[in-house]
Structures are given as structure tokens and as C-alpha cells.
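Quick start: read one record
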Amino acid sequence: MTVTLTPSPTARKAGPRRRRDHRRRATLQWIATHALAIALAIMFLGPLVFIGLTAVMTDHQALTSQLWPSRWEWSNFADIFVKAPLLTWIVNTLMYSILATVFMLVSSIPVAYALARFRFPGRKLAFLLVITTMMLPPQVVAVPIYLIWARFHLTGTLWPLILPMLLGDAFSIFLLRQFLVTIPREYSDAARVDGCGEFRTLMRVILPMARPAIAAVALFQFFYCWNDYYGPLLYAGTDTSHWTLSLGLASFRAVHRVQWNLTMAATLLAMAPVIVVFFFAQKAFIEGVKLTGVK
């Protein structure tokens, strides 16, 4: 004889309730474990959310007690291109950032390779001089360097900020050198045995292995140029056709200070490329920073 046991209605309701209680406890435990990370995320994302919401508000609602837009004004992003030469500033910023980054890589990689791999008299002194230049504030040499570029009639443009990158960047040389010394010499010795010269060894063997460090210094330089305000302010002058985004946004905020919705829309457009570049390159950037020893 077979006896079939049917669970009572109370028992059938207890099963889903226990699962809900278990999920609730797991959620609370996860929140308690990551409470500090959640607080920091809210702290960093809060200003971005505020900028994004204000950018699509009306002029009368911006910076009021109403934090959510009553009407989504997407036309603000079109209006800022009409009220300011924003497209020209974006092109100038891209030209400055990309050319300066490329020139820095072309000039800094060979110097870092020489300091890391070659043995020559005064090598340590040369590396010490590179580190010393990192301690020199740019404001100290601003006047003599400005006079030099004025003699070449390049003031009023961005070229005084781009061309010096052909002479290398001390910070980038330092980071690249710190990474290159960690690459075993057996790789370059094997390349020389196969008949490679120093240039071919650098291009075919060392650079592929140093890709994370190169990505890190390239992003450092790109972000610095994109956000640079002091350099364009010093050299670009009053000619708005040579302004960058940082300098143009400062002027835009001064002219349209009562229209915070337009100011926030322009700020959001200026921030967007940097955020996109970092998200696409964050893996190489973090790996490069970790391997070069930056803390």
C-alpha cells in the first residue's frame, strides 16, 4: 500500500518565504560588505548625475530645488554650438592632445630605452637630471620659454605646447624606463644574435612587450593635454580660434553664468570623450600603471 503525503498550505507558503528571506539576507550581507565602495561610488557619480540632469533642464529650473527635469531640453546641446565656437575648440583640443601624445611617444621611448638598456658613462647622472626636471614647476620657466617662442612668432597658437613634446617628457621617460628595466636582457640578446640592430630590436622585440607601459604614458599625456588650462591660457591669447575646450569653457561659463543648463551641457560634452577613452582603454591603463610601479 502506497501512502502519498500532501504538504499542507502552510508548508507550501513557507518555501517561497524562506527563499525570499535568504535572498534578502544575501542582499543585506552584500551591501554591508561593499558599504564603503557603494558610498564612494555615490560620491563620485553624484556630481556626474547632477551635471547630466542639469544639462537637460530649462533655464528657469537649473540650480533650483527641483532636481529632476520637469521638461527634457535636449536642444541645449545644439544651442551651445550656436552660442559658442565649440566645434573649433574641440578640434583644437584634439589636435593638441593627439599631436602632443604622438610626439611624446616618438621622443620619450628611445630615451627611456637608452637609459634602461645601454651602459655608458654618465647614465645615472642623465637619469638623475630627468628626475630633477620633474621637480621644476612650469611657472618658473614660463617667462623665458615664452620669450623664446615669441621670437619665432608662434605665440597666439598652440604650437608652443605641441613642439616641446618632440624633446621628450620627463615623467613619461621615467615611467617607461622603470618598465623597460624589468624586461629580461635575454630577449634583446637573442634578437642581436639573429642579426637585429638596436633600432630593430626596439621596434620588433621591446615595444610589443612594453605595450601596457606605452598605453599608460600615452593616456596620461592625452588626459593632461585635454584638461590643460594654463598652457592654452598662456600661449593662445585672446584669439578664440586657437582656444581649447578648457579655456573656452572657462570663458563660456563667464559669459553664460546665468544659464547653468547650457554651461552643464558644454561641460558634459567636454567630459564625454575622456570618459569614453578611459573605459575603452582602462584595462591597458591599469595594467601599465601597475607594471610601471606607480602607486
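The chain has a mean pLDDT of 82.
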